[in-house]
């Protein structure tokens, strides 16, 4: 059992780190990974991230660098840009942001001044920290107004979004988030943004792979600016992109460099290009639709076992489960599930009476298990394992947790992962 590609040089030079890498590869193989923001990248993406491109500094953009020796770097970045534009159908793409949070911050820097008003989804209702939440720089430096979901449906309250936009006249409106199980209504957000002359930023970090694969509507043509990470459902390396129309392209580029960062991480840019090339293939569309089919099947199976799903289900890869009726908090449930071989995260739910570090919910996603080959027919068994582990946690039955972990390890032997040979 070993990491792939193999790491003989690392093992010889630093056996302690090599051992931890091997242990992590084994852990990723042995667990059902349901963290909605995680996935498995291909061997090709893994190899691209470990190349000599990491040695090169490349401040600026292709053809306009501040360092010499860019003969190979410029074509790498240009390939990533052209592939992103072709895949998503946008006028412009910037592939340099280090991660999703800096990509969102670039939108602020490009189109708003400190102290001006922005409108984003509240974190407890499914938004992201960088959409103006109070503990984020975006909430400290800007006048952040927040919208939420309807209590009776768990879905975005677009009437509230419109009312807040009309009242506060924000410079930016963010749609998208980190725990939204339903389809994002980009046309409705665009109509509101046009009415108040705001720039609409669609944060599609979680659903980018679904958009690319045709399993979720695209914000292109509705949002002037689109931010996304390149991992999660898009199944690339840990990085980010900003897509935009031609009118907003120059401001986006200036905000990323020199506004927020120096040289891009060229090894990551190459891996993004590889992942975008993979996403352009027909089989990626099949994978994207399979993610949604798996999520719907898992939602149905959990509902049948008495679990309360926020909004009643899912349209995408993500499920948000309120455990209040199971008489256990999200944190102890997530910890017990981890011991049982099921990896997910505890999460606040809308109108949660509990504290964020000990909330009522758990968040699940089906990207990684879909990459691994699990299908809808497997989801009732996954739901059974989840239920057994949570029930055991509520009654402190460690033996049941250990049994579930053993069953999962045996089951997963038939579903290999990129990056590890069992």
From TrEMBL:
<dbReference type="GO" id="GO:0042803">
    <property type="term" value="F:protein homodimerization activity"/>
</dbReference>
<feature type="binding site">
    <location>
        <position position="123"/>
    </location>
    <ligand>
        <name>(6S)-5,6,7,8-tetrahydrofolate</name>
    </ligand>
</feature>
<dbReference type="GO" id="GO:0008168">
    <property type="term" value="F:methyltransferase activity"/>
</dbReference>
<comment type="pathway">
    <text>One-carbon metabolism; tetrahydrofolate interconversion.</text>
</comment>
<comment type="similarity">
    <text>Belongs to the SHMT family.</text>
</comment>
<keyword id="KW-0808">Transferase</keyword>
<dbReference type="GO" id="GO:0005829">
    <property type="term" value="C:cytosol"/>
</dbReference>
<feature type="binding site">
    <location>
        <begin position="127"/>
        <end position="129"/>
    </location>
    <ligand>
        <name>(6S)-5,6,7,8-tetrahydrofolate</name>
    </ligand>
</feature>
<dbReference type="InterPro" id="IPR039429">
    <property type="entry name" value="SHMT-like_dom"/>
</dbReference>
<dbReference type="InterPro" id="IPR015424">
    <property type="entry name" value="PyrdxlP-dep_Trfase"/>
</dbReference>
<feature type="modified residue" description="N6-(pyridoxal phosphate)lysine">
    <location>
        <position position="232"/>
    </location>
</feature>
<feature type="site" description="Plays an important role in substrate specificity">
    <location>
        <position position="231"/>
    </location>
</feature>
<dbReference type="GO" id="GO:0017000">
    <property type="term" value="P:antibiotic biosynthetic process"/>
</dbReference>
<comment type="subunit">
    <text>Homodimer.</text>
</comment>
<dbReference type="GO" id="GO:0019264">
    <property type="term" value="P:glycine biosynthetic process from serine"/>
</dbReference>
<comment type="function">
    <text>Catalyzes the reversible interconversion of serine and glycine with tetrahydrofolate (THF) serving as the one-carbon carrier. This reaction serves as the major source of one-carbon groups required for the biosynthesis of purines, thymidylate, methionine, and other important biomolecules. Also exhibits THF-independent aldolase activity toward beta-hydroxyamino acids, producing glycine and aldehydes, via a retro-aldol mechanism. Thus, is able to catalyze the cleavage of L-allo-threonine.</text>
</comment>
<keyword id="KW-0554">One-carbon metabolism</keyword>
<dbReference type="InterPro" id="IPR019798">
    <property type="entry name" value="Ser_HO-MeTrfase_PLP_BS"/>
</dbReference>
<dbReference type="GO" id="GO:0035999">
    <property type="term" value="P:tetrahydrofolate interconversion"/>
</dbReference>
<dbReference type="InterPro" id="IPR015421">
    <property type="entry name" value="PyrdxlP-dep_Trfase_major"/>
</dbReference>
<keyword id="KW-0963">Cytoplasm</keyword>
<dbReference type="Pfam" id="PF00464">
    <property type="entry name" value="SHMT"/>
</dbReference>
<dbReference type="GO" id="GO:0032259">
    <property type="term" value="P:methylation"/>
</dbReference>
<dbReference type="GO" id="GO:0004372">
    <property type="term" value="F:glycine hydroxymethyltransferase activity"/>
</dbReference>
<keyword id="KW-0045">Antibiotic biosynthesis</keyword>
<keyword id="KW-0489">Methyltransferase</keyword>
<keyword id="KW-0028">Amino-acid biosynthesis</keyword>
<keyword id="KW-0663">Pyridoxal phosphate</keyword>
<dbReference type="InterPro" id="IPR015422">
    <property type="entry name" value="PyrdxlP-dep_Trfase_small"/>
</dbReference>
<comment type="pathway">
    <text>Amino-acid biosynthesis; glycine biosynthesis; glycine from L-serine: step 1/1.</text>
</comment>
<protein>
    <recommendedName>
        <fullName>Serine hydroxymethyltransferase</fullName>
        <ecNumber>2.1.2.1</ecNumber>
    </recommendedName>
</protein>
<dbReference type="InterPro" id="IPR049943">
    <property type="entry name" value="Ser_HO-MeTrfase-like"/>
</dbReference>
<dbReference type="InterPro" id="IPR001085">
    <property type="entry name" value="Ser_HO-MeTrfase"/>
</dbReference>
<feature type="domain" description="Serine hydroxymethyltransferase-like">
    <location>
        <begin position="11"/>
        <end position="386"/>
    </location>
</feature>
<dbReference type="GO" id="GO:0030170">
    <property type="term" value="F:pyridoxal phosphate binding"/>
</dbReference>
């Amino acid at each position: 059992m070993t990491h792939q590609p193999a790491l003989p040089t690392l093992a010889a030079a630093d056996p302690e780190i090599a051992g931890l890498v091997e242990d992590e590869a084994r852990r990723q193989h042995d667990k059902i990974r349901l963290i909605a923001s995680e996935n498995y990248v291909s061997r090709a993406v893994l190899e691209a991230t470990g190349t000599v491109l990491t040695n090169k500094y490349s401040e600026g953009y292709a053809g306009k660098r501040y360092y010499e020796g860019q003969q190979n770097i410029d074509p790498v970045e240009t390939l990533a840009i052209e592939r992103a534009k072709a895949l998503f159908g946008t006028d412009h793409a910037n592939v340099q942001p280090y991660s999703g949070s800096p990509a969102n911050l670039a939108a602020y820097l490009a189109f708003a001044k400190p102290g001006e008003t922005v409108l984003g989804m509240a974190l407890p209702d499914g938004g992201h920290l960088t959409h103006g939440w109070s503990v984020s720089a975006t909430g400290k430096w800007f006048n952040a107004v927040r919208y939420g979901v309807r209590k009776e449906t768990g879905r975005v309250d677009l009437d509230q979004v419109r009312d807040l936009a009309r009242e506060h006249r924000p410079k930016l409106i963010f749609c998208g988030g980190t725990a939204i199980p339903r389809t994002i209504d980009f046309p409705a957000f665009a109509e509101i943004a046009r009415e108040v002359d705001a720039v609409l930023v669609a944060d599609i970090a979680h659903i980018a792979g679904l958009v690319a694969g045709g399993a979720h509507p695209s914000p292109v043509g509705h949002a002037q600016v689109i931010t996304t990470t390149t991992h999660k459902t898009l199944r690339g390396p840990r990085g980010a992109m900003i897509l935009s129309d031609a009118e907003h392209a120059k401001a986006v580029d200036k905000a990323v460099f020199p506004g927020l960062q120096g040289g891009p991480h060229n090894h990551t840019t190459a891996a993004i290009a590889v992942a975008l090339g993979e996403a352009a293939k027909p089989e990626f569309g099949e994978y994207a639709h399979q993610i949604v089919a798996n999520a719907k099947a898992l939602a149905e199976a959990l509902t049948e076992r008495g679990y309360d799903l926020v909004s009643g289900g899912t349209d995408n890869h993500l499920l948000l489960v309120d455990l209040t009726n199971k008489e256990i908090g999200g944190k102890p449930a997530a910890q017990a599930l981890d011991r049982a071989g099921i990896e997910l995260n505890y999460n606040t739910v809308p109108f949660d009476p509990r504290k964020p570090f000990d909330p009522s919910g758990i968040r699940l996603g089906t990207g990684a298990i879909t990459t691994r080959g699990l299908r809808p027919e497997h989801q009732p068994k996954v739901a059974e394992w989840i239920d057994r582990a949570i029930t055991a946690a509520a009654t402190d039955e460690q033996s049941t947790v250990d049994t579930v972990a053993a069953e999962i390890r045996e089951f997963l032997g038939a579903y290999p992962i990129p990056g590890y040979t069992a």
